Amino acid sequence: MLADALQDLARVRLVDDDGQEEFLEPLPPATEEEIARFEPGLPSPLPTEIRDALLVSRGLANGPLESFDLMDLGGFGMEDVFPHAHPIGHDGFGNYWVVDLHAGSVAWSPVFFACHDPPVIAFQSETVEQFVRDAVAMWRPVHPRSPVDEVHEDVTDRIWATNPGVIPHDEAAASPDPVLQDFASTLDSAAVLADLRRAKLGDGFSWGRYGPRTSWVRHGTERLWATVPPRKRRSLLARLFGG
Predict the structure, then answer these.
(1) What is the dihedral of CA 87, 112, 97, 220, to 10 degrees?
(2) Is the pLDDT of residue 172 over 60?
(3) What is the rounded CA–CA span in Å between residue 131 and residue 151?
């Protein structure tokens, strides 16, 4: 459970990237009054696991991440991709780890890494507890490598380079998957789709591949998105001479 993880990590001795010894410092617990003010801003009721964790600690005051706070990071946008995302982690460079919530959420799951340089979305972990333990492992001399470090340093570049999991409209329209087929039927034939319904570590898509004004449409609460790449404009000479 997340509450147990936060208790386990209190005052854990670690070694940072510069070889300096650090002790994890938990943030203070949330009060019942703070939780009562916090919950109405969420799209769904606060799960018992998260409530119990908040009564232990809101997050970590120091550690491998710039910030880890279950209640109050804010500053995240991208509503077309994650309409009700709740940010819980920040790397100090404008990139966030977010929980993908919606009105029917019964758990805070999964966690995605939303990066702007390169502009990609990457699957991080199934649970907040796993995310916290993997983040702390960045400062532990253990193998295999921390999945948080792997996503932050390598996976984002790989997703940008290969754009995995993107499906052309025609392929989606002919799919035996009824959800994929149904979504495709609502889209322009030039659309491309990104499917993260069964995502695992290393999966994701390049949300900014087609420029900073790229806009995505989501299929309800499914982790299924689509965008229409901008049509290439003809050159001035081609337009003048009908090429």
Answers:
(1) -20
(2) yes
(3) 11
Angle between helices 2-9 and 128-136 (to 10 degrees): 20
Q: Where are the alpha helices (DSSP H) in 75-227?
A: 128-136, 147-150, 156-162, 169-173, 178-184
| Strands, sheet with 111-116, edge to edge from the N-terminal-most edge strand | 59-60, 67-69, 84-90, 96-101, 111-116, 119-125, 204-205
Distance of alpha carbon 150 from alpha carbon 230, whole angstroms? 32
Residues 6+ apart with CB under 8 A from 53: 1, 2, 3, 5, 6, 70, 128
Secondary structure class of 96 (helix, strand, coil): strand
36-90 pLDDT, tens digit each: 999 999 999 999 999 999 999 999 888 889 999 999 777 788 899 999 999 999 9
C-alpha span between 230 and 227 (Å, rounded)? 9
DSSP code of 64?
S
Place of tokens 């939303």: 114
Helix (H) or strand (E) holding 220: none
By the 10 Å C-beta count (0-12 exposed, 13-18 middle, 19+ buried), 126 is classed as middle
